[in-house]
Amino acid sequence: MTQQQTDARPDTGARATLPMRVWGGLVDGLGAIGSLLIVALMLVICADVLSRNIFGSSLPLVSELGALMVVMIVYLQLATTLRHDRLARADIFYSNFRAMHPRKGAFLGALFDLAGAWIIGVMALATLRVLERDIASSQFIGITGVMTLPTWPFRAAILAGMTIAGVQFVLQVLGAFRTVIKGPRDDWT
Fold this sequence. Notes:
It is a single chain. By secondary structure, the chain is mainly alpha-helical. The protein has one domain (about 5-10, about 15-189). Helix content is about 75%, strand content about 5%. Strand 1 and strand 2 (about 145-150) form a beta hairpin. It is elongated, with a radius of gyration of 21 Å.
């Protein structure tokens, strides 16, 4: 990891404060939960394949559960993807630009992260409305009398992942602006 990458993310490095280390543990913990859910989803799908081949019918809830779990996994792992600078972007330009011009690169990164924070905030607001509707109407997935599950726990986990990713975007904006302010003086010429 280069110095400008460390400066752009305030929650990493040897000088991280206790709140930032706790935040990093929370973010990476959600990523680990997402990874465990991938394993669980894989086991459910394998069990469904076996059920179809052995008994001639699928397990209940597999398609509905799979659809909700994939979305939940994505948002649980989004913040850790951001924190470890693994979000896909046009790196052919950005990495070299950031290496040659740390302050300008940090400013460009701050703009990118600011846009990400705004977009994830809009998505979180929309998800909050869906969550409220699911709770109010007792929304569930499955077949009544066979097997059902409420949808609100999935929506709540998705909202939590979005919220934490939004906060991570904001932390990265703050770290990038710190680099812009404290970077080499001759970089803006």
